[in-house]
Amino acid sequence: MKEFQSYRMQERSTQAQWIVLAAFAVLIGAFFRTQVIQYERYRLRAQNNRLRPVPMAPPRGAIYDRHGLVIAETVPGYSVALLASSVDSLRQVLERLRTIVPLDSGDIQGVVGHFLLARYQPAVVLGSATLEEVSKLEERRAMLPGLVIQSEPRRVYPLGKAVAHLVGYVGEVTEADLDANRYQNARLGTLVGRSGLEQEYDDSLRGSPGVRYIEVDARGRLVREEGAAPALLPLQGHSLVTTIDLPLQQFIDSIWPVGVRGSMVAVTPQGEIRALYSMPSYDPNDFIGGISAKEWRELNEDKAVPLYDRAVQARYPPGSPFKLAIAAMALRRGIVDFTSKMPEPCRGGLQYGNRFFRCWKPAGHGYLDLTSAIAQSCDAYFYQLGLRLGLDAITKDGVLLGFKDKTGVDIVNEVSNLFPSSPAYFDRVYGPRNWSNAVVLNLSIGQGENAQTMMNMLKFYQALASGGKAVTPYIVHPHKEQTRDLGLTEAQLEGLRKALIAVVERGTAAASRHTDLQVAGKTGTAENAHGKPHAWFIAFAPADKPQIVIGGVMENMGHGTFVAPYVVRAIRRYILGPDSAGKAPIRVIVPDESAPGQLDLTPDTSSAAGIDSLPLRPQTSP
Predict the structure, then answer these.
(1) What are the strands of the beta sheet with 548-554, ordered from one edge?
(2) DSSP readout, 553-576?
(3) What is the signed CA dihedral for 489, 495, 497, 501, rounded to 10 degrees?
(4) How buried is 180 (Cβ within 10 angstroms: 0-12 exposed, 13-18 middle, 19+ buried)?
(5) Is the separation of the CB atoms in 316 and 447 below 8 Å?
(6) CA-CA distance, 510 to 573, in Å (whole number)?
(7) DSSP string of 314-342, one letter each residue
(8) Residues 434-453: pLDDT tens digits?
């Protein structure tokens, strides 16, 4: 019996040994698989639990004017972010942080929104913190768990409001942007161009982001910021050299009348834009690091619409500057020459049917030829010229001359111009046979169903100044499809230029004449359904061999003679230098003229609103 029990115990002992050996074999196999076969997988998982990636924004490329002066550049700055394990813990730290650095409820909600989109990355609180703010936060780091401060590139615009609509601003890409794939290779947290050149050339300016790592514990609390793992450094974006003349841009800003809305654009006969100015403006530096919710509301609720680029987005009735287009249509069709007079003299207007269409001069201009009619801006002459052309010819030629299309300028948000493509347009708007030749009379003086941007009118005058070829204006890169031919002979172009010289020498802009520089230009007073007429003036100089074409429009300022002195001063500043423009206040002479034209059949086609040292380009920059 004892021998049997001993045998049973020995058997059980052997079985137990085999079970233990099998267990060890399984454990060894598991350890081998984990430590050897799947080593890289678990090592990466451990590192991912321990390390958190922090994106490093690349320095954006600089933007320079044609002289190498800085329009936009990148300088060192700081960002402040918070690493948190939950929304509640993030809110608690934010409440403490706001006692040190001012934050409103909208800013806090924005930080929480960023956290919810990427829980395992630090949520940015201040995208552009000052050294003073960083110092205060560092002193109180103990009460701010998860505080992450890093050096980041900061965008700077030395001239601020003077270049806002030209250069635009930058901001963080949104989920909507990513869903629509508006910015290639962008991800949450990436700074992208939001307007102007910053947006137009964002792909080139942006560069490639880098990444650094911070170390956290098992609960996600920050252990250390530096040295956790090797960083991937960002690559700087490419710089842009533009055609802009920054001294001219700054000069226009310095003379622009306070409180007046409008725009001024300068372009060479070759299509190079030297200045693009819109007012009212905003400071693009306010967007650096993210604009506050309060400031963003104020900009969007401002009735003056400061974010609105009036050079390429605002459409105005072109008024009398469009009379040159009517003249060009009639000349190319052989209907008139420069000595042609109309059958009816100007007696303060033109009787057409049972209505009297007024001219701006109540006393009338009498009999005029085409040159004098342009110089005196006689509405009665152009009423009759428009009737000779006919609606079909005006609409067809207007489309051919580009008055319906965008200019194609290389800046974002340009709008198409409003112009009827055929008489069928009026059938659709008013119904068949429910309109009369009154629409022709209105179109003939730049009113009615015609609304143009400053940029498009300037493109037409650039063609008059450069041999009849309308060139697509550009700021950085010229376009391949550059030209649109006006279809005029050299003699006809010379005649139109002489008529424009007469406008300044003895016509409606005579108050802006200077003996040392001959300027050719056209004033305009465009009726506005929302208030006083808009004032236009487009000119080029020197008249015999143009170097620059500058156009200005000022909303609700009445007469073209109001804006003419500002345009002429800008022309003189560009051609004759800084000492030629003068520092005396501009003297405005308003002639005795009433608002032109009858607009009984004109729909509202106006725009929404009636609608010193600079850094130089480094020698090593691209």
Answers:
(1) 273-279, 262-267, 548-554, 531-541, 520-528
(2) EETT---HHHHHHHHHHHHHHHHH
(3) 180
(4) exposed
(5) no
(6) 19
(7) --B---GGGHHHHHHHHHHTTS--TT-B-
(8) 888 999 999 999 999 999 99
- Classify each residue of 259-278 as buried b or exposed e, where b means 16 or more C-beta atoms within 10 Å of its C-beta: ebbbbbbbbbbebbbbbbbb
Helix, strand or coil, per DSSP, at residue 448: coil
DSSP label of 507? S
The H or E element that residue 17 is part of is: helix 2-32
CA distance 418 to 215: 59
Q: What are the DSSP E strand ranges found in 48-204?
A: 51-56, 63-64, 70-82, 123-129, 147-156, 170-172, 191-193
Residues whose CB is less than 8 angstroms from the CB of residue 538 and which lie 6 or more positions away in sequence, other chains included:
321, 457, 458, 461, 521, 522, 524, 549, 550, 551, 552, 567
Q: Is the distance from CB of 238 to CB of 205 less than 8 angstroms?
A: yes
CB-based contacts of 195: which residues, under 8 Å, 6+ apart? Answer: 165, 168, 169, 307, 309, 412, 413
Q: Please name the residue that has the structure tokens 């009369």.
A: 436
Amino acid at 137: L
Query: How far from each other are the two terminal CA atoms of the chain, in whole angstroms?
Result: 100
Burial class (CB in 10 A: 0-12, 13-18, 19+), 524: buried
Residue 495: HSE in the Cβ half-sphere, 13 Å Cα cutoff: 21
- The Cα 387–Cα 265 span in angstroms is 33
CA distance 410 to 408: 6
User: Which residue spans within 390-541 are E strands per DSSP?
Assistant: 469-471, 483-485, 520-528, 531-541
Question: What residue type is assigned to position 419 of the chain?
Answer: F
491 by Cβ neighbours in 10 Å (0-12 / 13-18 / 19+) ranks as: exposed
Residue 88: partners with Cβ closer than 8 Å, 6 or more residues away: none
Q: ∠276-280-286 over CA atoms, to 5°?
A: 90
Nearest-angstrom CA–CA distance, 294 and 305: 16
Averaged over successive runs of 10 residues, the pLDDT of the chain (622 residues) comes to: 65 76 75 59 51 77 96 87 81 83 78 77 78 83 80 89 96 82 81 93 89 63 61 86 97 95 97 97 89 85 94 96 97 96 95 92 94 96 96 96 94 95 92 90 95 97 94 89 86 96 92 92 90 95 96 94 95 88 42 33 30 45 32
Do the Cβ atoms of 207 and 74 come closer than 8 Å?
Answer: no
Backbone angles phi, psi at 191, to 5 degrees: -85, 130
Q: Count of CB atoms within 10 A of residue 604's CB?
A: 9
Amino acid at 388: R
**C-alpha to C-alpha distance for 50 and 55, rounded to whole angstroms:** 16
